Amino acid sequence: MKFRLKLLLLAMILIVPCLSAAQEQEEPTIYVIRQGDTLWGLSDRFIKDPNYWPNMWSKNSQITNPHVIYPGQKVRVFPDRLEFLPKEEVSAQKKPVAVTASGATVTTTEALAEIAKERTYSVRGSEGFILETGTTSTGTLISIHNNRNIAGDDDIVYTDIGKERGVKGGEKFSVFRKDGTVSHPVSNEILGTKITPLGMVQLTDLEKKTSRAIIIKTTQEITPGSYLLPARESKRREIPLKMSAKELKGYIVDSYSGIGIIAAGDIVYIDLGSIHGAEPGNMLYVVRDVTIDGSSTTGYTQKLPQELLGAIVILETGKKTATALVVKSIDAIYRGDQLVSHPK
Predict the structure, then answer these.
(1) What three-state secondary structure class fits 110?
(2) Two domains, one topology: 129-230 and 241-340
(3) Pick the CATH number of 241-340 from 3.40.50, 2.40.10, 3.40.30, 2.60.40
(4) Hey, is 294 helix, strand or coil?
(5) pLDDT tens digits, 101-117
(6) How far apart are CA 122 and CA 125, in angstroms?
(7) In sequence order, which residues have a C-beta less than 8 Å from that of residue 228 and are 6 or more positions away?
(8) What 3-state class would DSSP assign to 285?
(9) How far is Cα 321 from Cα 136, in angstroms, rounded to an integer?
(10) Nearest to 174 by CA among 235, 228, 223
(11) β-strand 172-183 against 227-230: which pairing, if any?
(12) Long-range contacts of 83-91 (CB under 8 A, 24+ apart)
């Protein structure tokens, strides 16, 4: 009996430190959300797997929009998972400890004092857009001085814009190349003409139906037949992320390059515009339906979760279409892939 009691005491002596060590290993670090943080970035930084974020989002009910988290929110960081603290637990903490981007341990107040700038995306002004069906150009560049085929900075060109259009000398017009019609990948509806910015001209001498102009800026070679539209903002500017006012669903209809495979950094055109509630700064997720191989199933017909492929940010909107930047690509993206603002 005494021998058994000794064995029990010895076991308790050995087990209790192990339990304490396990508890210490499970003790999480508290991280305070800063401006610019995203679920994607947190998953990549702490779990070393950016694809973990849908799992984190689905298990944290207080996050209604997966790409909108706010400075001051707190996250428990475990070796294998991330958990957002409930609001009541956050308010109960007197001096919560946080970890800054540099890894230093500070108080919440100190962490918020080091908040980073809001995440923005650059627009160069040369991304292009879809000139939607029903919208016409202002005019056309009909000739280049000395009948040349290509024009550049300071060259003289001629347009079909004249006094009868109500324009005046000195007015500026943006020059665009038309790169073919764009049809919807699902409905085959013609959405418009893909337009690529080439530069800017300024009218100098006007006749009734024509005018002479000088090229004051080029981003690409200008040729006869180019479209002319009222001068558009072409300087570099920043687009801040903005939560979409309503749920958005659409498709990628084309890309700037026209290449089949689309990746991070590419410009794409989508079938969502201002009439759908889309705005510059909205982030959308690229998803694709998962098809079931009928030869390897036994009549299973339930819909599978969609495959997450990446994310885009809208840079500029038209009425029914928009220009966007691919900011993340987990896998190859193609024309016809779906877009959603609230993936699940």
Answers:
(1) helix
(2) yes
(3) 2.40.10
(4) helix
(5) 344 443 433 433 333 34
(6) 9
(7) 137, 138, 139, 140, 141, 159, 161, 173, 174, 175, 176, 201
(8) strand
(9) 16
(10) 228
(11) antiparallel
(12) 83/28, 83/59, 84/60, 85/30, 86/62, 87/62
C-alpha 217: how far from its chain's center? 29
According to CATH, what is the number of the domain 129-230? 2.40.10
Residues of the chain with pLDDT under 70: 1-27, 36, 50-70, 86-120, 233-235, 293-303, 343-344
pLDDT digits (tens, 9 = 90+) for 180-219: 899 999 999 999 999 999 999 999 999 999 999 999 999 8
Q: Compute the residue count for the chain.
A: 344
**φ/ψ (deg, to 5) at 313:** -125, 130
Residue type, 122: S
Closest CA to 144 of 29, 241, 223: 223
CA distance 12 to 6: 10
Give the tens place of pLDDT for each residue, 152-168: 999 999 999 999 988 98
Neighbouring C-beta atoms of residue 171, cutoff 10 Å: 17
Taking residue 28's Cβ as centre, other Cβ atoms within 10 Å add up to 14
In the chain, where the domains are located: 2-117, 129-230, 241-340
